[in-house]
Amino acid sequence: MTANGTSPTPTWDVASDAETESTYECLDCGTRVTGTSHPGSCPNCDAPFRNCATSIE
């Protein structure tokens, strides 16, 4: 419960198991890569990647 008596909005976390591969997508050009860790920036356009297992809201 929060201070005003309401239930907090749930947070959905992506498991961070070092053995599990995730798919990452470039936020600008759509390039996709798979890896066990965050790839950093896109090799094609230098924009950031996002983990496709997380929702965009």
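(ticket continues) Second input and output from the same batch:
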Amino acid sequence: MPQISKRILKPEVKKDLLDSLSYTIKELKTKKDVDSFLSSALTDTERIMVAKRVLTAFLLRNNVEEKKIGDTLKLTPSTITRLKMWIDLRREGFDLVFNKLEKRSRENIAKQIFYKVLNYSIKAAFGRIPKPF
């Protein structure tokens, strides 16, 4: 677990600090920029910890068995239970991200279907018998 100072920040300083972090992340435009920032700001252990938390939330949301999650991500049942409680308390943020990812996935699937239909139509228009998809 990452270490944090036992000296408590004033609430307004804490708010400004977290607002600055949110703004910084929001301004990153490319995956390369995000990777660079995360590599600079977090240790490998911290990045893996965050990635496991996000992926566990995603897998739980998609009804993947806890045992399979544990085996794949090398998490104990108690860790998964703790993450499940953590996720349930903070569902709004996870849902926001996953809804965007799912929308992008649906759009990509729609594009793939469109291009297959377009390719099929072009071949058919020139008298070729295309393979069915």
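Agent notes: The chain has six helices and no strands. The chain has two domains: 11-98, 99-133. Closing as not reproducible unless the customer responds.
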